[in-house]
Amino acid sequence: MSRHGRRAGREGRDDLVGEHPWGDAGQLLLAVLFFVIWIGDQLLGYTTFLNDVVPLFVRIPVGALLLILAGYLAQVSMRIVFGETRETPHVIRKSVFGVVRHPMYLSEVLLYLGLLLLSLSLASAAVMVIAIAFLQYISRHEERRLVARFGDAYRQYMRDVPMWIPRIRRSCDLSRETD
Length: 179
Known about the structure:
The chain is mainly alpha-helical. Helix content is 62%, strand content 0%. It has a single domain (22-165), classed as Four Helix Bundle (Hemerythrin (Met), subunit A) (Up-down Bundle). The radius of gyration is 19 Å and the shape is elongated.
């Protein structure tokens, strides 16, 4: 979904809490900066010397996998948030929102990381670090708004579901084992 479609999908929606006022503009600016530097570095090769160290047969499959995962997370999370109207607003816990609290932002990070692995551009990596810091900042802003709106339900969600990195769940809970 395009940024315009995403914005149109949330106008006048009482079931959405809202994003940081600079969220979309900041994400767009950082994405453009990343892509300009990434493409420029591919053409000029100033900071891509690590390409000689890590072979293509490693970089391409891992980078492609990250790009596919990024697309999946973006598509599913946007469909859930903007494609469904909730009559009674509530904390969304289904699907990818049961794995991480910010799957849309995680998809953006994975997109940057996947492209970065394809080129190993250190200049692009610097922009990616700035983008991650920005996403962390706007995520915290949005979470404060969500806590204000949903209170203990969102606090419990924060305890249950990690912000960015999915938990690897153990198949058996050792604390429940019987003797």
